[in-house]
Write a structure and sequence with these properties.
Two copies of one chain form a homodimer.
Chain A lengths: L12 H17 L6 H8 L3 H7 L3 H23 L5 H11 L2 H12 L3 H29 L8 H21 L5 H16 L9
Helix pairs in contact in A: 1-2, 1-4, 2-3, 4-7, 5-8, 6-7
Chain A binds a DNA duplex (18 and 18 nucleotides) through helix 3.
DNA sequence: GTCTATAATCAGATAGAC
DNA sequence: GTCTATCTGATTATAGAC
């Protein structure tokens, strides 16, 4: 039945080239700029190849997302090994350009069921990992610092980090300095002065 | 020089109809679905009328945004009259469907200079109003409750509220219950039990 | 397994008719 | 002041060639 058409091998070189092009385009100009033509152009390939390697444009978006998410999980596992996991999360999420890409995907996902489910799935995995590590860390620091359950600490930190990044992108800054100060004071209470940023 | 073409009157009935259609479409299917054809279809008008009332599609987006932003400012002024402004902000931003539309505009604005500036401008106005009111409120409650500067309290509350709404839309919920509990406990410490929601 | 020729549809915008 | 006929180009997707 559905789609007898053949699809390119998952490890073909040009498939990766197309993924790179799509991701870059998405970051630079937003998901609406990710058309088969523009992706191909950026990749130096013919537009039809996009449909050879990805049945639909939605499939392409999905593939871009999965690739980044998997890499993100590996990277997070790395930085969470830090003795100061809260600092690591905070620094990562206020500074990484990944946040912009995530925003783009979230906006796109708002109206695409499959992608939305995929994002939720990965987001839960990210948070689970975070929770485990932060729970252990808070235990180490001695409980009751402010009686914050680990998940709540994470949600708070991530919420603020995200807001700051979004507003920064818009060119806003009112209240940012004061907020960063308060958050970092809190982190310092828990984890002490931040060490130099971790490798990779 | 530029564009000698005439443009429809700002108060023409069909202009409003088109704005309504565009806004609804944006909410239901995302900004990428807002094309002249689809807007016109939803409005029961001819596609070309979109370009008669709005020179470009960007102009249309801008007009939709401004209309909502102005209305939002009026509404916020209303709810900030509450004797419990922090509760009002929290409730409004965790429950209002407006948040979804704002997200959509923010994503769109990410790659459109003019719209981005406009959103930043209005966002600052929103925050200024909030700051004034919350500052007065915190003073009333007696300072030093947790030594949070008003702007910081606002940024924290807004950040968390936004994260919860976004994740909710994705279908996520891990950590939400606990976070809501903590935030509302904090609000209760400051402003007591929330009264019934305000009118309008 | 890799890519191209081609179909079918939809997009933004403008000049000009009422 | 209001709307329509129409141009030009882009977009997704498929069937079929190498």
């Amino acid at each position: 039945m559905a789609s007898a058409r053949r699809i390119g091998a998952p490890d073909a070189k040009n498939r990766g080239v197309l993924l790179d092009a799509a991701e870059q385009l998405m970051l630079e100009e937003g998901y609406a700029a990710v058309t088969s033509r523009r992706v191909a152009q950026k990749a130096g390939l013919k537009p039809q190849l996009v449909h050879y390697y990805f049945r639909t444009m939605d499939d392409l978006f999905m593939a871009v997302f999965r690739r980044r998410a998997e890499q993100g999980l590996r990277y997070q596992a790395e930085i969470l090994k830090s003795p100061q996991p809260l600092w690591a999360l905070w620094k990562f999420h206020t500074e990484s350009p990944d946040t912009a890409l995530t925003m783009e995907f979230t906006a796109l996902a708002n109206h695409r069921k499959e992608l939305r489910a995929e994002i939720a799935y990965y987001a839960e995995r990210f948070r689970d990992e975070q929770s485990k590590v932060v729970a252990r860390a808070l235990e180490r620091y001695g409980t009751g610092v402010h009686e914050l359950p680990p998940v709540v600490a994470i949600v708070l930190v991530m919420g603020v980090a995200q807001l700051l990044v979004i507003e920064n992108t818009l060119g806003m800054s009112s209240g940012h300095g004061e907020t960063v100060e308060i958050v970092e004071r809190y982190l310092r209470q828990l984890e002490g002065e931040p060490a130099i940023s971790p490798g990779t």
